[in-house]
Amino acid sequence: MKYAIFSDVHGNAHALKLALEDARREGAEGFLFAGDYCISMPWANEALALIRSVPNAHIIRGNDENHLAVPSGDDGQFEVARWCARALTPENRAWLDALPHTLSLTLVGVPVHMAHSSEAFVSKALHARFRTSRLPFYYPDGPVPRDVLAADFRSFAATGELAAAIAALEPGVYIFGHNHIQTWGDFGGRILINPGSVGLPLDCGEPGAAYSLMTIENGAVTVEERRVPYDLECLIGKIRGSSQHASARVWTELIISELCTRREKVAQFLWCCEDYAHSIGDARRPFAKDTWQAALDEWERTARDRFPALFV
Ligand SMILES: [Fe+2]
């Protein structure tokens, strides 16, 4: 039996549609969704319509589903979450709110556990290296080949704190997303699978929609990582023409930049924004619209020189 595993769609319904079509062509009959369906790109309702139409699906929520409850306000920082919360239909919002945080299943006789973040399984042990704000600095010279990333993940997970945390798990499959880094490994029957991000890969790798196929046969689990290419320039044109871009330009431009490089920029941007706000004596938090916009202007002028690893 073949299962398709998706995570971190982030409103990119176009990428999800293509990934679902690819999975069906590859013979997937079961579908697992590991959270973060909304916020960042402007097609959350369309993404949810696709997910809700999939038969034989197991679905959990991510941390961005919680961010939809952002308080009202006129700051710039959280405007993208408010835009998304306004855009979602009440029915979709209620459906998201009812999703479980974790699931434990038995699929073809194999125990399968799902959580949005690896922290549910191995605490923070993965974050020392496999964190999106750090990853670009490990691979500063250009796109990282899939086999290099896979080898780094498996050697990192085979030693130290993470190896001990994995060894403490019951044998089975552990599915998570959250860091947008597509990886997997079999560590003595504890099989960790991160399908990466359908809508916004941040693993310094290839463009396209990332997801993974898991085949369970006679108790054995095999994994295939997929990356479905699409016309990114066309998508970016549609994002820039959206009302989300008009309402939340700063966040949306950061996301577009991340789409182009598969390298996270939000963490460094927030640090720069803090520096900028401090330099002008602005103590307002969340960041006010004018400061938020001016910080992006400053970022676009200086970030390539300050953080070249984020732009290769
Ligand atoms: Fe995410």
Attribute tags:
312 residues, alpha/beta, Purple Acid Phosphatase, chain A, domain 2, 2 domains, five-stranded mixed β-sheet, 14 helices, binds fe (ii) ion
3D structure, described in words:
- The chain is 42% helix and 19% strand.
- With 312 residues, it is α/β, with parallel strands linked by helices.
- The protein has 2 domains: 2-228, Purple Acid Phosphatase, chain A, domain 2 (4-Layer Sandwich); 246-310, no CATH class.
- A 5-stranded mixed sheet has the order 3-2-1-9-10. Strands 4-5-6-8-7 form a 5-stranded mixed sheet.
- The longest helix has 18 residues, at 289-306.
- Bound molecules: fe (ii) ion (FE2).
- The site of fe (ii) ion (FE2) has 7 residues, from loops.
Topology:
Elements lengths: L1 E5 L6 H13 L4 E4 L10 H9 L4 E3 L3 H5 L11 H9 L2 H8 L4 E6 L2 E6 L3 H4 L12 H4 L7 H12 L2 H8 L4 E4 L6 E6 L2 E6 L13 E9 L2 E9 L3 H9 L2 H5 L1 H13 L4 H14 L9 H18 L6
Parallel strand pairs: 1-2, 2-3, 5-6, 6-8
Antiparallel strand pairs: 1-9, 4-5, 7-8, 9-10
Helix pairs in contact: 1-2, 10-12, 13-14
The protein binds fe (ii) ion.
